[in-house]
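Thread: Newbie trying to understand structure tokens

Hi all, I'm a second-year student working on a class project, and my supervisor (Dr. K.) asked me to get a predicted structure for one chain before our next meeting. I've only ever worked with sequences, so writing a 3D structure as a token string is new to me. If someone could post the tokens and maybe explain what I'm looking at, I'd be very grateful. Here's the chain:
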Amino acid sequence: MEDHFRQVASLIGDPTRATILWSLLDGRALTATELAMAADTSPQNISMHISKLLQAGLLQTKHQGRHRYFSFANKEIAYAIEAMATITVRNEIINESSKDENSGIKYCRTCYDHLAGKVAVEMTDIFLRRKLIIQDGNEFAVTRKGKGWFFDQGIQVDILSQARRSLIRPCLDWSERRYHLAGSLGAALLKKMENEDWIRRNKQSRAVIITGKGQKKFYEFFKLTV
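---
Reply by user tm_fold:
Sure, no problem. This is what the structure looks like when written as tokens:
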């Protein structure tokens, strides 16, 4: 275990490989060409770095036609990368990411397949206060009251709990230094918000745009002014 940890830490510590992992946090699978552009390096160099990440079990690859797409080998890796940012991100990067406290990547963004940032942390706090979810140490659980509430929003917790992945888990938010909601429940919430046009993805970054409809819905459902 110790040797494997040293190997993984060494892999992530390389700037190019760190950029690859950070770029995949928006949940999209990317080609080697796209990753090379993100890392500002050559196709030959990016291929070498991708190969090391594949061998270490951090990435997986899928073929679609003539293209190969790369993504995290599992969701836990994405959560770990997001959590690591709480101790590695520099203040100047945070400041450049958001000039307005009510916009930008610190305010509302995607974290792999769920919502993150200030909005997501405040939403999680509301779930806890309303006893829709409870926290026991570093674990979250959905209450009976919560199951009913999510069912009313079209999210069936009992069905989600039958999936192989975690139903609900805390994910440490790098910008807020507190937990937001992850797991299949967090993914279902993000999907609902996207499908109903509460939020829209930004092709240039992980920051999401909250629509006019979304502003109304966040206040209606969570009493959040966004």
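A couple of things are worth pointing out once you decode it. The first strand starts at residue 59 and ends at 64. Residues 75-88 form the longest helix (14 residues). Feel free to ask follow-ups in this thread.
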